Protein: 3-dehydroquinate synthase
Organism: Cohnella hashimotonis
Amino acid sequence: MMISSVAETADIAVTVPRTDRYKIRIRDGLVARLGAELREAFGAVSAVVISDRNVWTMHGDKVAASLGEAGIPADVIVLPAGERTKSLHTANKVYRQLLDLRARRRTVLIAFGGGMVIDTVGFIAATYLRGVPYINVPTSLLAQVDSAIGGKVAVNHPAGKNLVGAFHHPAFVYTDPSVLLTSSDRDLRSGMAEVVKTAVIADEALFGTIERGVSAILARNTETLAVIINRTSLLKVELLSGDPYEADLRRPLNFGHTVGHAVEKEEGYGRMRHGEAVAVGMAVAARIAVDKGVCPAATGERIVALIRALGLPVRTRVPVERIWEAVTVIRMVRDGNLHYVLPGRRLGEVVMTNDIDASDIARALAALED
């Protein structure tokens, strides 16, 4: 056999099909039945529960007892509470602990906590041993309607929020509305910002449900909460279905997040909740939309009024110059393209634009002082 001295070249086409399927189960009492749920979904499996100190102190005994009763061997890693824990430093420490525990590629990681835990554990699951399965058991409203769904996992970097991450979908999401009975008022309100966001971009009927149910929501009426969690989760899944890996970064789910992420960074991670920053971002976007004539004044005021009624902020003390500087980092992440999502002619419709500058944000914040 002779081999030609001149190498022949050709393009080699590579196709790697990928399908992610998982269920979101929303039921009261799921935390207490977690062991039985895991046994049903995965059979014989070992697990590592990763939680934060506050959540584990409040609910850990229930989870440990449930896993023990189901005969599921489980270790527990407890992280410090707070957004500052969501970092590469934390991820590196957890990698070491997982190695010490001899966690393998079939070991299931259980993210048991709020958005910080969900995002951090998802990132660790995506990168440990090149990817291990994980399930989300969200304990805050924000995590139940947002962080736990969609497979966007990340940790923060000093330059910005969620700058180091991946797409790694969970194997299951277990949402227990009853855990919100022990949620702080601030965390509950923060979660409602994401619910309002979804209503503005996708469902006027949900927006009306929230308006009529503000008192019941803040009083933690579990029936009302279950309704909005179910509807918001379904809408988010529908919005994600055509773009599961965020190929189109202009999608409506970014409503409130461009300015919101900038505000959150400049206010300081941990000092302002993610939902509070998104609330400011939505209020700014609503004012800009009215100023630019793409949203009726009555609709813009309705959005801002609901944010205020839920006890969420609509303004920030961060200077506009610093907000705009942080926005430029977001533009870099989005490949130089920064499309703002503004509310449209009616609730449930949005307008995309890149015609926004620092003066638009300044005018909006000044108007929101009233």
